[in-house]
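Continuing the batch. This is chain 6 of the set; chains 1 through 5 are on the previous pages. Same settings as before, nothing changed between runs. Recording input and output for traceability.
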Amino acid sequence: MKKTSIAIFHENFAQNGGAERVVESLARLLPDADLFSSLVVQERLSSYMCKRGISCTWMQHLPLPKRFFRYYFALYPFAAASTRLDPYDLVLSSCFGFAKGIHKAPGALHVCYCHTPPRWLWRTDDFVKREHLNPMARVLLFAFNSLMRPFDVRSSRQPDYFIANSEVVAERISRSYGREAHVIPPPIEIERFTISDELPKDFFLVVSRLTAYKRIDLAIEACNKLHVRLKIIGEGPELRHLQNLAGPTIEFLGHLPDCQVAQHLSQCRAILFPGEEDFGIVPLEAAASGRPVVAFAAGGAMETVIDGTTGVLFPDQTSEGLANAMLSLDKITFNPQVLREHAISFSTTVFHRRIVEFLQSIPEVSVLPDLRLELNRAERSRLERTSVG
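Output for chain 6:
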């Protein structure tokens, strides 16, 4: 029987965030799959992904990808469209832009895990407001979008099936592309996090890329007003702007290794999560550490935060709304074990099981007889690793 060949294509590996952790989890589930991407910044890869090896498109040869990968946004659609994965029976694309536009062989199966349709293309007004674009950049963006939206819709016809990371994103896929999506939340690496035996320390925490839509400015303003300590883990283009806003109680820690991030999560009073996210893994990582989150009541947080049990949701996306929610924490007793149990329901084990069950439910899999065997083998291997751990 012919061995099923599998390819995984991710938008780009220029950052190391939630989307990249999803891809790594898929790669671990399917250890024989070949990995592809538009471009890779090697120092952003985990040690596991470095070992796996990733084939890149012509975009890898562009100047300074680590610095300029965001400015190349207009090129990603063409990189994806030029990628032909004809030798593969199953293609999994991981998409927050145009990875869904890759080409497969006739009769092959393409499943797209969509983190969100591109914000700058489908939520342009919100994107412009949050990214502080100048008037000329706005004009160019709106003109470019008028050309790119039809292209993006055509690209959305390439996958046979969509998986969305949240109900919010599934609704966006329906609205933008007229396609249905099966919801499978991203995985949380539960084993990375522990509940501290010590009492929480006297600081709040932000763990985030420092980009405008994350609204870290609200966290800084709220902590300035309350005169409380805030530690910010992460890096990004908004760093200088945020540093200018910060008062004496705000500390920027930059990029930290996973072990130090986990330590801060277990020690903080609470995580602050003031932006609207497509899903948002950080609130669940906080829960896995037994710590609550203060989150804006929109987007993925509505699916991952239980108000009054695993955190506090605030409805007004203002520094005053966030500050009031932070003050309300003192009125609530949070049970660290309850928080961790909530996070476990989003664990890697659960994610792998949902992915396998979904793929095995697809009618086309019956045409690829060895694929079902591959999935069963991957699932057995995962269960063995879990039992050993």
